[in-house]
Amino acid sequence: MSATPDLNELSKDWRTARLLYPLYAALSRECVIELPPCADLEACVDAPPAESVEQARQWFLDMDQRIQVHQLRQFLQTTTITNDESLRTLLLHHLRKAKLGDSDRDKIDFLLVQFFSHCAPSRLEDADVDVEYVAQMLEPVLGTFDVSVPEALKPLDELIQRANDCKNLKELFTSRILEEGRKLKISSGSSYFEPAAMVAFTRFSFLMRRVFFRLMHQDLNVILDGLRALEELGVYTLDCRKAQFSADEPVARLRMICQSWKVMFHAEYSSGQPLCILVDLRTAVDTALVQATKNASNKKTSAPKAVAAAATGGFAVSSSDVPEFEVSSAPAWDADADGNSDDSTK
Q1: Based on the structure, what is the number of domains in the chain?
Q2: Which domain range does residue 38 map to?
Q3: What would you report as the CA-atom Rg of the chain, rounded to the nearest whole angstrom?
Q4: Is 200 contained in some domain?
Q5: Over the stretch 37-61, which tens digit does the pLDDT of each residue have?
Q6: pLDDT at 284 exceeding the cut of 80
Q7: 178 within 8 A of 329, measured Cβ to Cβ
Q8: Would you place residue 304 in the very low, low, confident or very high pLDDT band (cuts 50, 70, 90)?
Q9: pLDDT tens digits for 181-218?
Q10: Could you give the 3-state DSSP secondary structure of residue 342?
Q11: 311 and 236 Cβ atoms separated by less than 8 Å
Q12: Residue 344: which H helix or E strand, with range?
């Protein structure tokens, strides 16, 4: 009689392992994680002995210790082999660990946002993303619970409002809103793993992701509009040394780079250094445009409408339906989405 629950547990664990193994194997290859494959999982064994199940458990533990948060984020943001079921299984795999540390918290934090993003409607309005709605969407992994936000996490609402008031990426980064959110997360300690707290932080991170996406796309559009206006004024090179380009960088090349960034930033959500360049490039374009407009005015030439609009910030920012990506806090321009210093990339 006592053996039946054990067999059921082994069978359940093996089904989970077989579902997760392709994800872990692909991540291991992409990130060049040196760990031999799990033989029975590699062979897709249907009914392994108990020893094989235990070896699989240990293999996943070893992999989890080797996988860094930024590697998990990078992989899941770019791979095409995930779906709601695999994300749910991966989340439950981490949530059910006997001992949860800082690395587990950061992985769970990202996975919760990723799972919510997969399940939420693409046209979801920010105003509809309240704690009750987030809790409902996360019920498959967190279960049902009291959704009252802990008092210590009430400042998250103020941070969201402040972020929504930011006019560009530079303002968002210098406001240190993301760092304040990160500090709240760290200070929560083990309380972070309470369902109500995880819901509150998932909502915060999801809305910060949206703010970041809007501001990034807006900055790129403003830069591209400014580059076109500069060309209309006869300016074909730009001093962009502060943005790590040359002192006479061709405007045409800058335009091509910005177009490529529109694609890159949708995949590499945590590219801290390119974001630094993006912010500095906007400053360089804005400065050059003001100077070029003054020069044109001194020559008593009539500036084209596009130039006047760019100089006054009058361009309308186009909307985008491109999927969102992870936010980069980047106080030093090399931090990951949670504000962590990142050795290879948040």
Answers
A1: 1
A2: 1-67
A3: 24
A4: no
A5: 988 899 888 888 888 889 999 999 9
A6: yes
A7: yes
A8: low
A9: 999 999 999 999 999 999 999 999 999 999 988 998 89
A10: coil
A11: no
A12: none
Which residues fall within 8 angstroms of residue 224, CB to CB, at 6 or more apart? 255, 258, 259
Rounded Cα distance, 267 and 264, in Å: 5
| H or E element in which residue 340 lies | none
Within-domain flag for 72: no
Q: To which H or E segment does residue 237 belong?
A: strand 237-238
Length of the chain: 346
Distance CA 303, CA 230 (A): 10
Token pair of 67, please?
A: 């996988």
Q: Is the Cβ–Cβ distance between 149 and 196 less than 8 Å? A: yes
CA–CA distance, 204 with 327 (Å, rounded to integer): 11
What is the reported pLDDT for 278?
87
pLDDT at 108 over 70: yes
Tally helices (H) and strands (E) across the chain.
Answer: 15, 2
What CA–CA distance (Å, rounded) separates 61 from 13?
13
Q: Are 202 and 116 in contact (CB under 8 A)?
A: yes
Query: How much is the pLDDT for 9?
Result: 77
Domain assignment present for 51: yes
**Is the distance from CB of 219 to CB of 278 less than 8 angstroms?**
yes
Q: Is residue 34 part of a domain?
A: yes
Other beta carbons less than 10 A from residue 60's beta carbon: 18
Q: Is residue 189 within 8 Å of residue 233, measured between CB atoms?
A: no
H or E segment to which residue 250 belongs: strand 249-250
The SS3 call for residue 82 is coil
Global pTM? 0.79
Predicted pLDDT of residue 22: 93
* Segments in 188-329 forming alpha helices (H): 195-232, 251-267, 272-298, 305-311
Half-sphere exposure at residue 117, Cβ-oriented, CA atoms within 13 angstroms: 23
Q: What is the mean pLDDT of residues 304-311?
A: 52
User: Distance (Å, rounded) from C-alpha 68 to C-alpha 61?
Assistant: 13
Structure-token pair, residue 114: 């990723």
Helix (H) or strand (E) holding 280: helix 272-298
Nearest-angstrom CA–CA distance, 24 and 76: 11
Is residue 149 scored above 50 in pLDDT?
A: yes
